[in-house]
Amino acid sequence: MSSENWPLRQDPESPVIISRSLVEDPSNLAFVVLDDDWFISDGNEFSEDMDLNRDAFGSLPLREAVDLIPEIAALAELPTGMAADWDPERRAWLLSSVADSDDDEEDLLVRAARLAAWTHPGSPLEEVQVSAELAEISTDPASPARAVRQVVREADGTWLFVGFQVPENEDFEVEALEMEHAVTLYPDVALVLSAAPGQVYDRASADAPWELVEG
């Protein structure tokens, strides 16, 4: 893949950790995690046994990993600290915020840095409910663009972001993301994060201004 067409923001020569089985058969792809580096897995996770880890995982330049598994290119907007499970039938990535690690001291430092860098109301660590399609990234170029149509601040202060693909007044599935990840994926919602409990903001299209419709 030429540098002119490089889809990701990370350096193409940066190292990634990858399951060795994927080098032989990329169809074993199960999930990726983006932290300090990319972690691309066939479903196995790190164990406490370093010998097992060396047997199960290797390293490749990110460029080679994308050549091997081009579906990764769809994750160009994936925020750091998120995971994406691969759904081979739907050819889509299912996003989630990564849970804390086993290193309590490191987790505290990471949280402190995230809180210090946050410039919006509330906390970047706060849980947000999003309609299911907002937590997915399709690899189909014909799939509709994802955008938030409605931002709801429930009476108890919790948040709900609803996408344009959800019909109005119909039940829908939701997924949980951390606020920082939701805002990074959908930066337009930052404009209404000062909403008070009980307020609802809506807009007619992805490029229309937000309107207060309730509260």
Given as residue ranges, the uncertain stretches (5+ residues, pLDDT < 50) are none
Strand content: 25-35%
Radius of gyration: 19 Å
Termini separation (Å)? 51 Å
Q: How many runs of DSSP E, i.e. beta strands? A: 13
- Helix percent band: 10-25%
Largest sheet: 7 strands, mixed
Describe the structure in your own words.
By secondary structure, the chain is an alpha+beta fold. The chain is 19% helix and 28% strand. The protein is built from five helices and 13 strands. The chain has helices at 20-24, 50-56, 62-68, 104-117, 179-185; strands at residues 15-19, 31-34, 38-41, 57-61, 82-87, 92-97, 127-131, 136-138, 148-153, 159-163, 174-178, 200-202, 211-214. A seven-stranded mixed sheet has the order 4-1-3-2-5-6-8. Strands 11-7-10-9-12-13 form a six-stranded mixed sheet.
List keywords for this structure.
215 residues
Question: In terms of topology, how is this protein built?
Answer:
Elements: E1 15-19, H1 20-24, E2 31-34, E3 38-41, H2 50-56, E4 57-61, H3 62-68, E5 82-87, E6 92-97, H4 104-117, E7 127-131, E8 136-138, E9 148-153, E10 159-163, E11 174-178, H5 179-185, E12 200-202, E13 211-214
Parallel strand pairs: 1-3, 7-10
Antiparallel strand pairs: 1-4, 2-3, 2-5, 5-6, 6-8, 7-11, 9-10, 9-12, 12-13
